[in-house]
Amino acid sequence: MEISGRVAVVTGAGAGIGAALTERLVAGGARVVAVDLDEAAVRAVAERAGAAAVAGDVADEAVIRAAIDAAEREFGPVELYFANAGIGGGGGLDATEAQWAAALDVNVLAHVRAAKLLVPGWVERGTGYFVTTASAAGLLTQLGSAPYAVTKHAAVGFAEWLSVTYGDQGIRVSCVCPMGVDTQLLHTGMVPEGAEADGQLAIKAVTSAGAVLSPEQVADDVLAGVAAERFLILPHPEVLEMYRHKGADYDRWIGGMRRYQAALRG
């Protein structure tokens, strides 16, 4: 898909990958609505990039609808939706019900709610593109954070289901699964209050596994994947080999992850 002239919504656009995507999309000729919980941050990104801005929690269907309505009002029907917002969640079994609920809401159900609003119209028009920012944790796992590991697996699963179900009706889907990216989520968002040890383990697991990429590098990889209409976008190509090892011998992979966890803790 060519992005020039397309209408796009990007969530989590106040910083990190979302901000970089907003800037790259506008530079490529797309008309963009940037959405983020942090109003000051998203308005600054939008002003810098030349995009429109909507502030709010994208786990809330009303905010998603407001972003879609703003895009239609300013530019026309939404053609690309980047479900990029994400949070770290909690630690292990001590993660609270509220932390689990928040992780499910932002990392999974926000995608479901957006798809419910967009896909029927896309099917009528015979075209539309849904881009999910998941994580390598959705293909592998996340040491130190049960909510993050589980919800990112669910995000990958929903993206797969969306592509299988609607791919023959003109709906394209990509699922982005990076490892370490130089964002606030990596540095502080994985350290929930009361589970600092688990959070530091999560950060160390990511930063020790491979290169930490810039948000701009990831945004470039995402848009290259969209241009190629590729389902699985891997800014860290080595994740594919890790995933193959996991599928080839699950028990051996789990044993290896236990040893990796012990080494990081040791």
UniProtKB/TrEMBL annotation:
<comment type="similarity">
    <text>Belongs to the short-chain dehydrogenases/reductases (SDR) family.</text>
</comment>
<keyword id="KW-0560">Oxidoreductase</keyword>
<protein>
    <submittedName>
        <fullName>SDR family oxidoreductase</fullName>
        <ecNumber>1.-.-.-</ecNumber>
    </submittedName>
</protein>
<dbReference type="InterPro" id="IPR036291">
    <property type="entry name" value="NAD(P)-bd_dom_sf"/>
</dbReference>
<dbReference type="Pfam" id="PF00106">
    <property type="entry name" value="adh_short"/>
</dbReference>
<dbReference type="GO" id="GO:0016491">
    <property type="term" value="F:oxidoreductase activity"/>
</dbReference>
<dbReference type="InterPro" id="IPR020904">
    <property type="entry name" value="Sc_DH/Rdtase_CS"/>
</dbReference>
<dbReference type="InterPro" id="IPR002347">
    <property type="entry name" value="SDR_fam"/>
</dbReference>
